């Protein structure tokens, strides 16, 4: 009866069927939260169901009689000045407080909300895309560089290793300095930093910030250029804001490693790829794609693999439109310009061929990179893969998401959902955008490429980890995934804003404007150098005293090679502090200390820092599992230990000669 009633209102078509299937799938996924406790199992079904319900409501409501509310002209004209003044205040606040504090993030959230409000609620007469893009880029620059300014060393873990490589190349003036490492075959990031240092005559740290650090915020403009090939300026600007505010994109603007530069090249490839599908392209356009493909292959392996996924999605979209198994042959020219599908087989073959060739020559763990990765993947499939065998990461994000401890406070249980809230908002908008573009009259190779790319990447990010497969490093995928999600999300919000009744539209747009920016900025990835919830997330930056201790430990011990250190001489401390000690070469054989629950560590050489007693740091328990544990100095340094170094914040303990 319901089926007949709906079909009488509007004949069923591909997007309608997809929305109904999505609703049924959301209902079918609900019982999984009873089988396993995982944040995405608990939330994604609700997000999917809500997006499908809103889309169906937009299809059948047919109530667009009232225009949407717009900001008064004086208010709309004043908001840009308020945002620009607020960005200056963020800089002053960072200088005065010496760090990005919760007050900083609250103020930044308000400013980001004001930017999104301008995009969504200004009239056509007042809407100024250039001024809005300027605000978005300046916000991205200020948000990232205030963190870089306030942090004595580097933010993150891998950056210490990469800067060691950069220093070695700079000192030896040759790539042979890193010939033992896999980055020998993908050195573009390291060469860029060295070249920037030489050309600008600045230290390597500043060269990193003036090269990769500046390029990262500017690269968000590629999202605008890509989206504007599909929809009007307002929604292209919205896609840019959605992407620029995302937590993982912010993280790679703080933790500046080859992944950051790989993301820039990925965005450029995405733009060039959509461009050749939307215009009458020339060989110059394809040459640009080939050049960018070579650049990303020489920059970062994970970014290269993600790019291959994008190209595979584009090729599948081509096959869909050439063979036409779904009858996707007609286009609504009022939505997308009709254009014959672009033949991408040559580009795909070139990328796969060059990637395999380079990876076969890349050294990694005494084998080639390709052989090592395949062996790791095979081992995972044989030993640990299984349905709902949810693998946890090495840090607290997944552990906190478990939520199984009855003693956890309400805030501790809520923090994982706060971290994921922005992603879930964008995911819901993406679902709506996907439903819109599968309409037979709107289907086109470019939007299907975005849809398939987002779908495949979501499988790597959300689905495979639920089967215990994390070999593809899913946390590295989010920033890349946010690119097609931001574009499709803007299309989805545009669809709902155009077709829903004004009351529902205002509610949806206000939720996006008021919640999404703050959720993304308060997520742990956006504040890794000084976490808002410092008792639940580890700090991936260090104080002057902690960095001075690393240098002093290296001088004290003579910085021995790893092979010269006996197992009983291994240095133990918390994670992530152990990473900076080992990665800088101060003491290569450094690992996470084992501290039993309510017990003491049993190690000969340990390093204690005051942060271990106040904030979130990781130690192994007696079973070798990592968990947050706040420890006092006497739980690491035992009575038989002697203090061989201390500076007030960091203490190194070693066996006393008297014992």
Automatic annotation (TrEMBL):
Source lineage: Archaea, Methanobacteriati, Methanobacteriota, Stenosarchaea group, Halobacteria
Protein's UniProt name: Glycosyltransferase RgtA/B/C/D-like domain-containing protein
Compartmental location: Cell membrane
Organism of derivation: Natrialba magadii (strain ATCC 43099 / DSM 3394 / CCM 3739 / CIP 104546 / IAM 13178 / JCM 8861 / NBRC 102185 / NCIMB 2190 / MS3)
Predominant cellular place of this UniProt entry's protein: membrane
Keyword line: Cell membrane, Glycosyltransferase, Membrane, Transferase, Transmembrane, Transmembrane helix
Cellular component aspect of the GO annotation: plasma membrane
One record GO biological process: lipid biosynthetic process
Transmembrane segment boundaries: 12-33, 39-58, 79-97, 103-121, 133-155, 207-231, 251-274, 286-302, 308-329, 341-361, 414-438, 450-473, 479-497, 504-524
GO-annotated molecular function: pentosyltransferase activity
Membrane topology: Multi-pass membrane protein
Superkingdom classification of source: Archaea
